Amino acid sequence: MQKIYTNIIQIAGDVIMVEASGVGYSDIAQITTRRGVSLAQVIRIDEEKISLQVFAGSRGISTGDQVRFLGMPMRVATGENLLGRIFNGSGNPLDHGPELTEHLTDIAGPPVNPVKRIIPNKIIRTGIPMIDVFNSLVESQKLPIFSIAGEPYNELLARIAVQAQIDIIILGGLGLKYDDYLFFKETLEKHGALNRAIIFMHTAADPVVECLLVPDIALAVAEDFALKGKRVLVLLSDMTNFADALKEISITMEQVPSNRGYPGDLYSQLASRYEKAVDFEGAGSITILAVTTMPGDDVTHPVPDNTGYITEGQLYLKNAVIEPFGSLSRLKQQVNGKTRSDHRAIMDTMIQLFASYRQVVEKQAMGFQMSTWDNKLLQYGRLFEKKMMSLEVNIELEKALDLGWEILAQSFTPEETGIKRSIIEQYWPR
Question: Are residues 68 and 108 in the same domain?
Fold first, then answer.
C-alpha cells in the first residue's frame, strides 16, 4: 500500500522537499492540494530528505499537503494513436483530444547498448541542397543546428518536418513563444504532414520543469516506434532553453554552479538525451536534429561547447543560410558515395571554389584589381549563393547535383574545375 506523507519541510521555486523513505530516483509522486492533484518527480535523495520537481509549479502547495509516491518513474503513452496529436510538456493533450492511457512506457531510460547499434549508412533526404549535397543527414545521427536568436531556425525545422523522407516526425518544443507553437502546428497541417507527426510543446509561459520533460518524452515515444521498425526523426528546439531550465533548477536546489552558472553535470544531461540516437539491428532508427542557440553568437558558450563534444558535427545557420564553413556532418562520408557517383566530386569541388570566391570578395573590398580568374570566381560564388545556399531552394538530391554541374559550367571550363576526366565525361552539361 502506498504511504501518504504530510511533512513537506521546504518549498523553493518549483522544488519541494519532503521527509520520506523507500523512494527511488525519478519516481513520480502525487501532491494533493486544495486545488487538486499535481504530479512531481524525485530529483534528489539525501537520506530521508526527498527533493521533487513539481511539473505544474509549486504555486498553491502548502507544507501540510499530502504527498503520495507511486513507486514508478514517469510514463508516457505510445503507439499509432499518438500520430497527429499535440501534447504539452507533461504529455497531456493540447488539441482537445482524449487522454491516452494505454501502452505506457517509462521515460528517461538508458541509451541503447552499442553492441545493438548498426553503423549509420542511410541518408535522410530533406530537399535542402546545403544539407543533402554538402552535409548529408544520416539515419541515427545526432546533429545540432547552431544559430542565434532571430535566425529562421524554426522555419528550417518545420520545412524539414514537412519534407524529410522519413516515417515519423516527433517535434519537441522547449521554451518556445506561443507564435512559434502556432507556426509549427499550422505549417504541418497546411502541408499534410501532421498525420505522420507527434508534437510535444512547452512554451515560455508553461512551468519551467516541463521543459526538462520534453526531450525525454519525445525520445521515449521515438524509441517505441523505432523498435517497431519505424524510421523516426526527432526535432528539438531549443536545447539552450533546456539547459537554462537545468540551471534554474540547480540554483533552486543550491547546487554548486559550474561554468556561467550551469550545473556541473550539463555534459551528462545533454549526452543522455543525444545518445538516444540509434539504428536498431532488424528494426527502425532514431535520428535527432536539435536547435542550439548561441547567446552572443558565442560558440564557446557552455551549451554549444558541450553539445559539440557529444554530437556528430553541426549545421551553422547564419544570415538565414546554412553556412558552408563551420557546418559539418561527420557521417556524410557514410552515404554520399552511395547516392550518385559524382556526389563527392561535386561536394568537394564546389566548396573549394566557394572558399576561393570568399577570398576574392575580400580582395575586391580592399580595392585590388580583378583578374580573369577572379571574375570567374565572383560569377560562380553569386550563382552558388542564389541557387544553392538560399533556403528558398527546394529540390531533390539528384536535381541538386545536376544544378551543381550547371553552375560550374556557367563559370568554368571542365579543366578549371579539377574534377577527374571520367566524371567530367559522364556528367558535364552538353
Answer: no
Distance, CA of 267 to chain centre: 16
**Which of 47, 73, 99 corresponds to the end of one domain?**
73
In tens, the pLDDT along 355-374 reads: 999 999 999 999 899 999 99
Tell me the torsion sign for CA atoms 301, 304, 310, 312. negative
**Do 313 and 352 fall within a single domain?**
no
Burial class (CB in 10 A: 0-12, 13-18, 19+), 156: buried
Residue at 183: amino acid letter: F
Write out pLDDT tens, residues 391-401. 989 999 999 99
Number of domains observed in the structure of the chain: 3
Q: What are phi and psi of 64, to 5 degrees?
A: -95, 5
Q: Which of 119, 136, 139, 120 is nearest to 315 (CA)?
A: 136
Expressed as residue numbers, the domain containing 154 is: 77-334
- Residues 27-83 have pLDDT tens digits of 888 888 877 788 888 888 888 889 888 887 777 888 888 899 888 888 899 999 999
**205 and 97 housed in the same domain:** yes
